[in-house]
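Figure-free illustration: sequence to structure, shown twice.
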Amino acid sequence: MAQRKVSFAHGEYYHIYNRGNSKQKIFRDKSDYNRFIDLLFVANASNRFNHFNIRRMNDIFSWDRGKLLVAIGAYTLMPNHFHLLVRVPEHGDVSKFMQKLSTGYSMYFNEKYSRTGSLFEGKFKAQHVADDRYLKYLFSYIHLNALKLLDPTWREHGFAKKTKAVAFLDSYPYSSYGDYAGEKRQHQKILDPDQFPTYFPDQQSLMKELMIWITYAE
């Protein structure tokens, strides 16, 4: 089995991503997305947790997780893949977090859809983010990924109406964009922004950065 070339070091940042086996959908409906989002919270824990207990919890985001395995700065879920931006805290463990996340979601998905076999396309992929400019860019790249659902080729020709792109981002619930855009929701507890540089202290600064990249595509 091929070994992952990236090694994980405390205090460092990583872009984590994976997709469905043979590019198949890993999210088929709203409840699938919501289960993965729940797991982003509960899998990021040193405390043990039975994944099947999620369905019986009234407030998942109040669960005491103990020490976090990773600090999550941004995420986006797409029909057949996902993106995460993480930092490794002291005593953190990216591989353990991803094992808990992937196993928990695969168990849920296979049971729900009466399927067997691997859900994801091999091991998760990881890129070390050592450059500050690249780290800042990833906040835009990950959040703007959802625009592919509006127009798969937008990066080549941009949007004639940028307000349409912004409106789509505002309405897309399966990413951390809403948390940075000022929405008040429990999902915000998934993020640990204090572990990342303060690139976007307010909604306006984030929107300004995103508009630069949307415009740059033209």
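We now fold a second protein in the same way, so the two outputs can be compared directly.
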Amino acid sequence: PFAIGLMARGGGLFWACAFGVAHRLGRSDMARIAALIIAWSLIEFARAYLLTGFPWAALAQIWPGTDMALLLAWIGPQGLALATLLATLLPGFALIRPGSVWPGSVRPKLASLVPALALLVASIALAQARPEHAPLSGKTVRLIQPNAPQHQKWDPAFIPVFFRRQIEFTRADPRPDLIVWPETSVPAMLNNAAPAFDAITAAAAGTPVVLGIQRTEGARYYNSLIHLDGTGQIAGRYDKHHLVPFGEYIPLGNLAARFGLRGFAAQEGGGYSAGSGPEVLQLGSLGKALPLICYEAVFPQDASAADGRADFLLQITNDAWFGERSGPYQHLAQARMRAIEQGLPMIRAANTGVSATIDPWGRITAQLPLGQAGYVDADLPAPRAPTLYARTGDVPVLLLLLAATIGLWGLQSRHKAGI
């Protein structure tokens, strides 16, 4: 009830706020357009950061799969959202209300096309500079996709079926350099997983394995990623830190426990507890990986917040929650955005799909279709040099928008004063 009722309506209020501000601030049609572009762009920032953030269906998400998405490496998702609004709203209003918005000669009307043309030219130039094929690291990664529907994933009758399926895929020859299982793919708590790990290690036959598993620490539960080395020893662990509100924890649940509502308290097992934050894991000869568990790949800030730069991004996810409609494809699009922004390849293992390897320009180099059990061995692309966005983040675009807000406010004040 919280997610369906309150989150949907609360999310809609962000956009409503942008349009309301634009309507109230604008003294003319042109001023309203400028105010809408600025307010909408700032609201996209708020959606990405406020209340832990939820930037699903962000404006820049329409571009993966096109050359426009290459701009993410330079200006990031917030900058591309701003550029998209400039390129569409200015000429759009010129066509709808030409006399009111663009009075006088045809020259101002043509000027409204400049942002769209600039966006097009920049994307073409970046596409021309992109190599036809991404350089390779020389390493092979196997992605495991058991295809466990959510209603069967934790059914005792089906748990052994999906586990055996993953073991069979792991055992297949020829041997890769790394095997990746999806989120919560091991049907046991880490504290009791020794038999499962023995079976995985025997099937992997000396190949390191990365897998998703749950673990407990006292009364707390964690959604974790484990790196098993070639001997079956735990060589690294990462706990998911950016949790899904109302899905993995209840906001203020620990506070509610003080009033007797202990079923919501993560610290008492009523939901997951958050890990310590982003970190880079060393995966032997493959280099350093930045782990992202499911929802964390939605956030560009999570892909660049760890100390030190990774050699690749590593996402494990359970997209079975979405079924086989648009959700898994939207999640894949956001994974492609993170690869472009950071200039890093991504390894993505999804329970029901789409599992894929993605190069640093956002191109899918290998994949398993949605709703299909199987595995794929893929060559791991090599990383690019750090992108401009990887070095600067969202700060330049935010400062630009704040400066534009001050400028618009100043113009409106002068207009009101009759200056």
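Summary for the second example: The longest strand covers residues 136-145.
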